[in-house]
Amino acid sequence: MPDKMAFGAKQHLRLILNGKSADREDVRNSVEAVRQMGHKISVRVTYEAGDVRRLAGEALRDHEGKPIDTVVAGGGDGTLQEVLDGVMQNLGEDETPPFSFAVLPLGTANDFANQIGLDPADIHSCLRFAALADPKPTDIGNVNGSVFLNMATGGFGTEVTAQTDPQLKRVLGGAAYLFTGLNRFSELSACEGRIEADDFSWEGSFLAIAVGNGQQAGGGIRLCPHAKLDDGFLDLTIVPFPKSGTVFDLLAVLLESGVEETHTRFIQRRVRDLKIKTEKNFQFNLDGEPKNGQDWQIGIRQHRIRMRR
After folding, report:
1. What is the pLDDT of residue 3?
2. Which of 31, 105, 235, 265 has the maximum number of C-beta atoms within 10 A of its C-beta?
3. Residues 285 and 231 in one domain
4. How far apart are CA 192 and CA 185, in angstroms?
5. Residue 58 sits in which domain range?
6. What does the pLDDT read at residue 48?
7. 65 in the same domain as 22
8. Domain check: are 50 and 165 in the same one?
9. Is residue 286 part of a domain?
């Protein structure tokens, strides 16, 4: 758990809670415990598709009447992405949100929460951290007009994330992605595309692409191990499609250890903006939220939000 916390004025937290977790006893107990500390927590629970973005817009409107200090995304990485995107879509291109953000990690992988040192098994401490930690300037990424906080990934790893069985995720947690990937390796086929970024260009067949503001995705796979959340850059990782006969080995290492163990078999660059064009329809995951297309414009918005991390 991160150490630095700001003990001072009582906070108003707006918790946008994924409805799947609304009945969790630890969530209810944690909300009550933080309220007992003197903080205000107004809870909004999702019920159907589109609710997260609607409630994010509602938080902006409510802030005008009764200021909100922090909007807390209660759910997985996808819920956090939807909250951020919902707020940013209601602001002008150069506007910054009037409140900070925090995460209450209630998902399967919780990649962003794990990166910043939160323990998803200790929900009380995570919510307390959301009330007390210092908000820090934080970058966000942009993909064709939608934002992400942690990572945008494309290729086979994206399909694994999107197609992993929900029951398997409940049983195995983040390891479900590894299990699914290893059991689907026979379906692998190369993605063909061209990537242009700043003074860098690359064209060819790839297994996966990752554009990271954060370091890990898909249940702890370290695809961008050197990425920083506030440096004004995105970390680009390209995993070229390997020669026949080595696909399984590469996939196993990638899912188990990330790109750090694949040595020279991947390409990395730090970029501010990039373009990706693929020959066929291609799926990108923005913190777990899938998008489909062939042309992608990706960029960084430096210090656009404040995050309690």
Report:
1. 52
2. 105
3. yes
4. 18
5. 12-133
6. 95
7. yes
8. no
9. yes
For residue range 11-26, list pLDDT tens digits in order.
Answer: 999 999 999 999 999 9
Rounded to two decimals, the pTM is 0.85
Is residue 115 within 8 Å of residue 150, measured between CB atoms? yes
Domain endpoint, select from 133, 165, 193: 133
Burial of residue 94 (number of CB atoms within 10 Å: 0-12, 13-18, 19+): exposed
Catalytic residues, which ones?
A: 289
Any domain includes 206: yes
| H or E stretch covering 113 | helix 111-115
Give residue 182's pLDDT.
Answer: 46
d(CA 221, CA 158) in angstroms, rounded, equals 12
CA triplet 102, 104, 108: central angle to 5 degrees? 130
Asked whether residue 122 falls in the same domain as residue 173, the answer is: no
Q: Cα(119)–Cα(213) distance, rounded to whole angstroms?
A: 20
Q: Is 95 left (phi over 0), alpha (psi -120 to 50) or beta?
A: beta
d(CA 27, CA 17): 10
For residue 71, what are the β-bridge partners?
14, 101
Which among 137, 13, 19, 118 is positioned nearest to 71, based on CA atoms? Answer: 13
256 and 295 housed in the same domain = yes
Distances (CA, A) of 293 to 78, 177, 198, 223, 274: 19, 23, 22, 22, 15
Residue ranges for the chain with pLDDT beneath 70:
1-8, 156-189, 244-258, 260-264
- Token digits for 304? 């656009």
Residue 232 backbone dihedrals phi, psi, to 5 degrees: 80, 10
